[in-house]
Amino acid sequence: MRSLYSFSIMLFISLISGGSAEMPVDTYHLVDLADKGILFDIRYATPDNFTHCQLYPFAKAYLHKDATVQLLRVHEDLRSRGLGLKVFDAYRPLSVQQKMWDLIHDERYVSNPTINGGRHTRGTAVDVTLVDSQENTLDMPTDFDDFTDKAHQDYSDLSENQKNNRTLLREVMEKYGFEPHPFEWWHFDLKGWQNYPVLDVDFIALAPKL
C-alpha cells in the first residue's frame, strides 16, 4: 500500500503538473520547496559560504514548477531506497549571481551572468546531496562549493564509497531529466534550462504576504 507521504507527493505533482494557480509563487512559476519532505542546508542565507557574506535574507529554496515536479520524483525514488535529498541551493536572483561572479570569475564554478544570465537564475538548477534514512549526509567527494578538481564529475582519486554515492546521485537525477554539471558533483540542471527566462526577483518579493 502506498504510504500517506507518497500519496501526498503524487497529489502535489498532479496538481502542479496541471498548472494549479496556488502552487507557483506569484507569476514567476517558482515553487517553495518547504514541507515537501526534502532537507535543506541553505548556506547562502548565512555567512558560512565561499563569499563569507549572507546573500539570502532567509533560508528558502525556490524552484521552477517544471523542475519541482521532477525533483519530487527523484526524492520519491530515493525514499524507496531508504534515502533522501538535501538541497543546498535552487533559484538564485540575478543580482546575487553577479555578486558571486565578481568574486570568482571562474566559469567552471560560477556562471558568468553577462554570457547566459546564469543557470540558477532561471529556477531550473538545483544543488543537492544524498542523505540516509536518519537524515545523515552520505559521504561525497567534497563538501558543497568546493572549487577544486575533487568536485569534478570525472575525478577518480576517491574512496569507493564516495564514487558510488556520487554515481547514485547522478544516475537518479539523470533518470528524471536533470543534467549533471561537469565541475560540481552537486549541481544539476533541468534539461532545456536555456529556454527558461532569467529572473532577478529577490526572496522578500517571493515570500508570502502576511
Give an account of the 3D structure.
This protein is of the alpha+beta class and 210 residues long. The chain has a single domain, classed as Muramoyl-pentapeptide Carboxypeptidase, domain 2, CATH 3.30.1380. It has six helices and seven strands. The strands form two sheets. Strands 2-4-5-7-6 form a five-stranded mixed β-sheet, covered by helices on one side. Strand 6 and strand 7 form a beta hairpin. The chain is globular. The mean pLDDT is 87.
Q: In oligomeric terms, what are we looking at?
A: single chain
Ranges where pLDDT stays below 50 over 5 or more residues in a row are none
Strand content: 15-25%
Average pLDDT for all residues: 87
Biggest sheet strand line-up: 2-4-5-7-6
State the end-to-end CA separation.
Answer: 39 Å
Descriptive labels:
globular, 7 strands, single chain, two-stranded antiparallel ribbon, 210 residues
List the helices and strands and how they pair.
Layout: H1 4-17, E1 30-32, E2 39-40, E3 62-64, H2 65-79, E4 83-89, H3 94-104, H4 113-116, E5 125-132, H5 160-175, E6 178-181, E7 184-190, H6 203-206
Parallel strand pairs: 2-4
Antiparallel strand pairs: 1-3, 4-5, 5-7, 6-7
Helix pairs in contact: 1-2
State the gist of this model.
The chain has 210 residues and is α+β, with helices and mostly antiparallel strands.
